[in-house]
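ok so i was messing around last nite and threw this chain in just to see what happens. nothing serious, just curious
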Amino acid sequence: MSTVAFLGLGLMGSQMARRLAEAGHEVTVWNRTTERSTSLADVAEVAECPATAVKGAQFVVTMLATPEAIEEVAFGEEGMAAALAPGQVWIDMSTIGPDAFGAAAARLPTGVIAVDAPVRGSVPEATGGRLQIYVGADNSTFQLVRPLLSTLGQPRQVGPFGAGAATKLIVNLSLVASMVAFGEAMALADALDLDQATILDVLADSPIGATVRAKRANIEASEYPPSFKLELATKDMQLVDRAAEAAGLQLPAASAARRWMESAVAEGAGGQDFSVVAATIANAVRDTNGSPVVVGEIA
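result:
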């Protein structure tokens, strides 16, 4: 068993930290919102700041929302970086992209091992230890972190340092694009007067079937309890756009999906599940009288 500092206790992080503690690891937790930390006081030690949390830990795990959050937690006042020592392992499981991860890793004290290991899955997978974990590391480092990460799900070595963070962008591009395709398909089905339940059955067996099966209940109820928050999915698509631009690529489908997500955020839905974009699409392709908009008139 290992000593672990876990920083970032959102919907996912809180379940991941609890799972590590209940597996027998000695876990210290910290979160910017104190209430989330104290909710784990029954299984973990609660630290007052990131620097205190990481002292003496073999592994330091961060599960934070944005590159800006990583910057604050690592390098802000009482941040973790100043307290890290050679031989400690920082495992970033956030979705921040390879550039932000690499820049943060380069500023850590000499001798600190940095591993990017973002995850695919939501709260049920985090609770049940079924996350897909994309690890960027050399072989020896992968073997070092694999036992710990296996408690949380299925770690997969996807390449060297930075490859995990990059792979997560690719995965989330396909996930969000699939959800947007689902939303547009349902808008077209409605315009063609097709039965919703029948179309959902058909789409569940289509190439986007996994997304349809996961989000069907939300679409049918027009309710979107957060599993993967829209605001986080939108941030991820913005990271995809930046990565593509840096690589000299134009990705029109990715850009279109990002714009749909940003439209949904602008409507105030950021805290809901990202499947709420289907409602934004349905509303946007109809005029105020409820009649279909002519395709050429859509902005």
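not much to say yet. Residues 180 and 257 are 6 Å apart (CA to CA).
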